[in-house]
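FORM 12-B: Structure-to-Sequence Request
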């Protein structure tokens, strides 16, 4: 489960309510695993349609895209 362009395993999502708030995660065995620093109660609603961004390159797409790669 990695970025289809650069192979990076680390991603982030943006909070739709606050454009400056980001949440880092990786995808392991098809599951989203947030960093220990992320307060899970503060996460926005996340679904397969949530836009995810690669931490290394300019790739971004819906979360379901990286869960299937």
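FORM 12-B RESPONSE
SEQUENCE OUT:
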């Amino acid at each position: 489960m990695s970025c289809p362009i650069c192979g990076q395993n680390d991603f982030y999502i943006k909070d739709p309510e606050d454009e400056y708030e980001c949440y880092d995660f990786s995808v392991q065995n098809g599951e989203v695993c947030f960093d220990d620093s992320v307060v899970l109660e503060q996460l926005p609603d996340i679904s397969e349609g949530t836009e995810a961004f690669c931490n290394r390159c300019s790739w971004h797409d819906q979360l379901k895209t990286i869960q299937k790669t």
